[in-house]
Amino acid sequence: MRDLFSSQPLAVLATQCNGQPYGNLVAFAATEDLKVLLFATARGTRKFANITTDPRVAMVVDSRTNQKADFQRAVAVTATGIAEEVASTERDHLIKLYLLKHPHLKKFVNSPNSALLRVKVGTYYVVKRFQNVMVLPIGE
What's the whole-number average pLDDT of the chain? Predict the structure, then answer.
């Protein structure tokens, strides 16, 4: 998973509001222990409002190339967990980690209108070869 996460800049974030799913592409980063996924968003977005209402989210990272071979070769990882805005006491450290992967987003992530969010991962679902699924619960 570390290789996949380091090679892919984007994830699909799924939130919900009143039972209606909502998906977005987000630039993400993972902590070394893979217990936390980070992303930034403007506070005025629908995804931020959805997370404020219901912090349960899913994030999907995959290796697809949009070729037929993906059915046998692509790997997809879905992380489920709870999203929350990073507290000011941890913000500097986690922004540094995020910007190691996404230095081009420095101005955006440091904007007063932006929030850095963390997803505390509860479970990873890893899918290989189209139907081979592994469930990996993440401990505290």
Answer: 94
pLDDT per position as a tens digit, 30-82? 999 999 999 999 999 999 999 999 999 999 999 988 878 877 788 999 999 99
In the chain the domains, ranked by start, together with CATH numbers, are 2-137 (2.30.110.10)
118's tokens: 């963390």
**Strand 36-42 relative to strand 20-30, pairing:** antiparallel
pLDDT over threshold 70, residue 24? yes
**The tokens 């101005």 sit on which residue?**
107
Alpha-carbon gap, residue 61 to 26, rounded angstroms: 10
Rounded to an integer, what distance in angstroms lies between the CA atom of residue 132 and that of residue 138?
19
The identity of residue 67, as a single letter, is Q
The residue behind tokens 């349960």 is 56
* C-alpha closest to that of 55 among 117, 134, 123, 10: 117
- Tell me the three state secondary structure of residue 10: strand
* Distance separating alpha carbons of residues 11 and 61, to the nearest angstrom: 5
